[in-house]
Amino acid sequence: MQILLVEDDRILCEFLEQLLRRDGHCVTISTTGFAGLEALRTGEFDLMILDRMLPELDGMRLLQQVRGEGFTLPILMLTALGTPADKVEGLDAGADDYLTKPFDAAELLARLRALARSRSGGYGVLVRCGDVALDAAARLLTGPVGGCEVSGREAALLAFLFRNAGQVLPRELLLDRVWGADSEVEEGNLNNYIFFARRRLLQVGSRVQIQTVRGLGYRVCEC
């Protein structure tokens, strides 16, 4: 999923970015309320994680603004304010879920999966390309002859490739979007995951192919 994280604690941002990217998500970080609102207005996101105590524009006001402008993406409030009254206020303002700090990483990921499923009628974020469809949250790839489960990293790679079908995607861009700009992942890992992705497409009987563009990167096309 494409996740917008609005949080001003930079150490927590680094932790969450690594956690979410390891789980196969793409993450955009905003450290102020106004920056988060601008990112949402100009980008495309499947889900938002929102702190409540933010500089410039606090989380509650940002939440109300977002809902007032008609954005319907799921929003998880992640905050240190955890009294029952705080939770009620956040949920009534438009949050879909409310999790207090400190939190368990596994619980956070489970709540995100639940939000993706509930918003899409039991399925996750569906990305289509030719004769194949990827449910990124459920990690299910479906094609002409059936479906197969994929890992979180495979789902992130396939989702980015499918969303940019027909374009030549440089290796550096794929490493940045799937693993993160600060990741120490080696290019050999990308080669391995491209191999896995091609094998998955064959497994579901798809005509979609991931072509190698020598010296540049990869391109997805339907043959």
Distance between termini?
A: 27 Å
Determine the CATH superfamily of the largest domain: Response regulator
Number of β-strand runs: 12
Q: Note poorly predicted spans.
A: none
Global geometry: elongated
**Strand pairing plus helix content: what structural class?**
alpha/beta
Q: How many domains make up the 3D coordinates?
A: 2
Strand order of the largest sheet: 2-1-3-4-5
List the helices and strands and how they pair.
Blueprint: E1 2-6, H1 10-22, E2 26-30, H2 33-42, E3 47-50, H3 59-68, E4 75-79, H4 84-92, E5 97-100, H5 105-119, E6 126-129, E7 132-135, E8 140-143, E9 146-149, H6 152-163, E10 169-170, H7 171-179, H8 187-203, E11 208-213, E12 217-222
Parallel strand pairs: 1-2, 1-3, 3-4, 4-5
Antiparallel strand pairs: 6-7, 7-8, 8-9, 10-12, 11-12
Helix pairs in contact: 2-3, 6-7, 6-8
